[in-house]
Amino acid sequence: MNLTVGCKVTWTESVYTPYTEGETSDFIGERTITGRITAEGYAKKTNYHFFTIHVYSAEGVNAHEIEAQSKIVRRGVVLYPKCRIIATPDNYAELVQEKAARKENSSPVCYAHLKGFREGFKD
Fold first, then answer.
1. pTM tops 0.70, yes or no
2. Contact (CB, 8 A) for 85 and 1
3. Residue 62, SS3?
């Protein structure tokens, strides 16, 4: 799945009790959010893909915590498993190609196995 700026998406995410240091949060249910991706980024230090999403609606457990017309940030690892693209921007194909080119030119650590950089290393 290629999520790009301009995609309208809906996804279901897990909801947990608030985090308290030294304790384990409990799963309390799921909520479904619909919105449009307005920005994306990648944090090399943490290896996380981030999306900024303009929220249209939320329903389910603690949906009141997600205000319509607000912006939220979610990691790709949260979006990808239960995400569905509802609509794409007119230039979607171009954005996907641009994203693939950025990925191709990124850190060799992530794609070492594809470029033969792992020679001499044990897996």
1. yes
2. yes
3. coil
Distances in whole angstroms, Cα of residue 23 to Cα of each of 5, 13, 113? 36, 21, 38
Check residue 107 and give its pLDDT. Answer: 52
Hey, CA dihedral for 22, 27, 33, 37, is it positive or negative? positive
The H or E element spanning position 66 is: none
The residue type found at 103 is: K
Q: What is the mean pLDDT of each run of 10 residues along the chain (123 residues)?
A: 93 94 95 96 85 96 96 94 95 88 59 46 45
> Do 84 and 11 contact (CB within 8 A), yes or no?
yes
Give the Cα separation of 18 and 21 in Å (integer). 10
Distances (CA, A) of 120 to 22, 97, 113: 41, 32, 12
Cα-Cα-Cα-Cα dihedral of 116, 117, 118, 121, to 10°? 140
Any idea what the Cα angle at residue 10 is, between residues 84 and 35, rounded to 5°?
135
Contact 64, 55 (CB under 8 A): no
